[in-house]
Amino acid sequence: MSLSFEISKELADYASTVREWSTAECRPYAREADEKHAPPANWAEILDTSPVPLGRADKPEAAPVPEFDEGHYVSTAVITEAIVYGDIWVVPALGGGIGSLVVEAMGTPEQIAKWYDPVKASGAPTGFGLTEPGFGSDTSLVSTTATRDGDTWILNGTKIFCTSGATGEYVTVFATVDRSLGAKGISCFVVPKGTPGFVVAKPNESKLGIRSWTTSELLFDNCVIPLENRLGWSAEGEMVTKRSGRSGALAALVHNRPRISSMAIALAQASLDVTGDLLAEQKAGFAPQRWAVIENELENMGHALERGRRLILRAQYLVDIGKDADDAAAAAAAKGYAPQTCERVIRRCIQLLGPEGWSHELLLEKWYRDVKIMDIFEGSGQIQRIIAGRTLMGRLVG
After folding, report:
1. C-alpha of 256 from chain center
2. Which is nearest to 102 in space by CA: 224, 4, 275, 246?
3. Closest CA to 87 of 227, 209, 175
4. Residue 315: which domain range?
5. What is the C-alpha to C-alpha distance for residues 152 and 329, in angstroms, rounded to an integer?
6. Model's pTM, two decimal places?
7. Which phi-psi region, left, alpha or beta, contains residue 194 (left: φ > 0; alpha: ψ -120 to 50)?
8. Which of the ends of the chain has fewer CB neighbours closer than 10 A, N or C?
9. CA distance linking residue 204 with residue 215, whole number of Å
10. Catalytic residue status for 343
């Protein structure tokens, strides 16, 4: 892959096929998914209509997504944008989850073989339990506790907005083993579904956007798990890997943040295309000077989205070639720029369309609600801009 980040014809054609399919087959169900807070009831049949493999967890026997010369992370970002261009509801229907990425980032070889390899092969969903009532970006404030009792850990606490928390094979839960240590006292524990004391209080919380995504409130009430379920530690209670719970969480998120940004780009591009088509139909009603201004504004918004794409591709390219240290800053730049820019693009599209833009007849108001969270979860845009600034200017920035 060259430094121009021009993707190959093979990947471009594949993404184009997915995008056309998602627009035709998935977008018509976008409003239903939003209003019912769940994917459409016939989601499996809708996915069956895809002309190319999508990497579905519900059909592990199906052909996998092809490997492209660009690498796994770059091709995933490109294909994710193509999928979400239809609508955001498709993503959770495909399965997966970021809980397994935490296992990969900080697990022992035995833990990776037990909890990462199987879900990677099957695509089964896994949950990620970090956010709690009372804190957001400051992860050192984790108050869920893990108390050792012989050969077990006992978890007590609450997690909120846990993606795939109610449906995952397991949830990676962040808890403190010693509050006096602050962030250094945080560890991560694998809690399989069905574990006594693991309670799904709200299967899907009521929220502004991405309503079709299952984000759950989870309670841990004297939840007992084996000693070996502490990631990075052996069954004998000895540290094997060097990552703490918090750094493991952040390492897992670094690789996924550009993918989140790809989703934001998809929603903004869909909004821009819908807006451009509708305004073109109304061209006769604009004075030539006014139409020239509108065309220029639409073009500039397209350029802004293209800059976001290039940041995303650069971040994922660095992961694919093994430069994870450089990727932390590149991922922060992609996450700090794209979602916030996409929110502004969709808002401006709505304004250009006037009352029609906010109407229920179009999906722009829904996509605007959906894109808001992209700037917040998995590391807020403010934090990402601090990370990028510190990379350029030093630790005192921010």
Report:
1. 6
2. 246
3. 209
4. 246-393
5. 38
6. 0.92
7. left
8. C
9. 5
10. no
Residue where one domain finishes, among candidates 94, 110, 144: 94
Residue (of 300, 297, 391) closest to 353 by Cα position: 297
3-state secondary structure of 349: helix
Residue where one domain finishes, among candidates 41, 64, 94: 94
Asked, for residue 80, whether it belongs to a domain, the answer is yes
What whole-number percentage of the chain has pLDDT above 90? 71
Could you report the per-residue pLDDT of 199-233, keeping only the tens digit for each?
999 999 999 999 999 999 999 999 999 999 999 98
Token pair listed for 360: 């229920």
Give Cβ neighbours of residue 355 (< 8 Å, ≥ 6 apart).
none
pLDDT in tens, 22-72: 999 999 999 999 999 999 999 999 999 999 999 888 887 788 899 999 999
- E-strand ranges in the chain read 127-129, 145-149, 152-163, 170-176, 186-192, 198-202, 215-226
Amino acid at 200: V
Q: Is residue 106 part of a domain?
A: yes
